[in-house]
Amino acid sequence: MEFEPVAAPREPAKGRLPLVKSVAVQVLKFSAASVVVLYLWARGDIAWEPLREAFGRWEQSLPAFLLLSTMPLVQFWRWQSLLRANRLHLPHREVFSFLMVSKFFNMAFPGYISGDILRGFYVSRRASEAGGTSRPGEASELGEPNARVVPPAVVASIVLDRIAGLVPLFALCLIGLLGLLSYPIPPEMILSVGVLAAAGLLAPLLLFLLTYRRPQPAALLGRMARWPRLAQFVSAFYEGTHRYARNLKLIRNILAFSFLNQGLAIVSFVLFGWALRIEAPVMSYFLLVPLGLLVTAVPVSPAGLGVGQVAFLALFHLVGTSQGANLFTLYMASYVVINLTGALLYLFPVHAAMPTPASAPKIQTE
Predict the structure, then answer these.
(1) Rounded to two decimals, what is the model's pTM?
(2) Closest Cα to residue 166, out of 293, 59, 278, 63?
(3) pLDDT of residue 147
(4) Which residues of the chain have pLDDT under 50?
(5) How far apart are CA 232 and CA 147, in angstroms?
(6) Which of 278, 356, 282 is nearest to 320 (CA)?
(7) CA–CA separation, 165 vs 79, rounded Å?
(8) Which residues of 152-169 are buried (b: 16+ CB within 10 A; e: fewer)?
């Protein structure tokens, strides 16, 4: 008795599974982006009325909006300079995409830490896929595979990027405080702001001096010897920070980017204030706006929404106006519109910016 061979079941086309995965990932991305936008809309954060009213005075509000639109470019160049100084060489388009996507999702979560975690994850993954932190053929100074030092190098770049963004706020607070000494500001506030600004400037200076003089935190690593992985991470993180501190030209450029970025914000607030017919001395913005922005950085509400209105309302009462909340609302409406670019970059990423498992590049190993 002869048996006919049973035909093997047909396997699905090899090209179909990656396509299904790609479509599923795009659907998930679109759903996530839509949920965030609808959440902001339902909560009233995306409101067009303040923009519509102020843009009626386009000679002030339009230049303010355009200045705010250039701030992500300044932030991008600052962060890219830090990444490349720490041997993280990624294309400009990808780094900018990571930054804008993190700024978009940061609008829906309290504080700024969530966006930092997101962009840190993206850069770490891309740098690891590209073969590590160094240029092709460049060896790691730690004697370890380059990919292992990617996360601490990325963390070091983000931490210094955040510190560099805060330093101008403290410096501008001192400048504004000196310019408003003749104003009837409560002495308690003068003392509190002075101490806060001095501490905010002293802490980065001490960190710079420590990392500039010592290439390794020997005492700290000695205590962490029982946890080799943590010790290796801290050592690599400190090495990256030390490399930044020894690069005085980089520090100078980073501070220049930071002061330019905050200067654009101050000028934008002044123009928005003029559009809202706020009668306050220009020098007051150098004190009140940095203080208000520092308050919104506290992780209480998403991107400081709500908290910012209360803070700016109270601060601008000091100069005799009740338009502080409207001023911040106008700023936040512009901020939301600008950061919606991150939603587009999330849904339609640039080439290899956020690779899916189906499209992630393979690293050849010997």
Answers:
(1) 0.74
(2) 293
(3) 44
(4) 1, 3, 6, 8-9, 11-12, 133-148, 352-353, 355-366
(5) 13
(6) 278
(7) 10
(8) bbbbbbbbbbebbbbbbb
